Amino acid sequence: MRALDIMTTPVVTTTPDTAIHEAARLLADHRISGMPVIDAAGNIVGIISEGDLLHRVETGTDALRRSWWLDFMAGTRELAARYVKEHGHKVRDVMSENVITIDESTTLRDIADTLERHRIKRVPVLQDGRLVGIVSRSNLIRALATFTQAEADVGAYDDAALRDAVVDALAGYRWALPKGSVFVKDGVVHLWGVIESEQEGRAICIAVEAVPGVRDVESHLAFPVIIPAL
Predict the structure, then answer these.
(1) If 0-12 CB within 10 Å is exposed, 13-18 middle and 19+ buried, where does residue 98 land?
(2) How far apart are CA 104 and CA 127, in angstroms?
(3) Ranges for the CBS domain (predicted)?
(4) Edge-to-edge order in the sheet of strand 216-222
(5) Helix, strand or coil for residue 40?
(6) pTM summary value
């Protein structure tokens, strides 16, 4: 699946000159936590989110209510920027200008990596530079919810082919088992060998369970026996 398959469209947007209270009403009315900011030419120039509106003078959550020593340690540039964010009247005063975007063909894995790496909750989707959708963490969760075990079981394998598929699925991981440690009978995978941790064993089982055609996994993995020195 890719961004095109899970993105939300049409996208709720606002403009740099929109009043703060109007932007807040858009977020509340559409029950969203953030939205792109679009200029007159249709280009994305920012993102405004609930976090950008968290500290505002109107609600009494501005800097005056925070510890004095935090202001003492901050530079004048930081203090001025904070004042603009808490007292500004337009979206341009509070929006985040550093916008991370993806295109329609971005895979779910890359989307998840992008959200995690940049510590963001949503990312606009572009097609030829134009906004066509937006993907949020909730879109990824909904994609997971639509996945069924039936989809994972597509395809029929004989035991020998299934064993090869399991070995291929584990290949490349440092905690992978050698082929000689994997046995398959009637679609049930039996795992034998010595592992170094419980987490290793769980990772191996999860990787094997995800292989299409696997009916069940029987783990016979064991931890090494450490004999204390006399």
Answers:
(1) exposed
(2) 6
(3) 7-63, 95-151
(4) 182-185, 188-194, 216-222
(5) coil
(6) 0.61
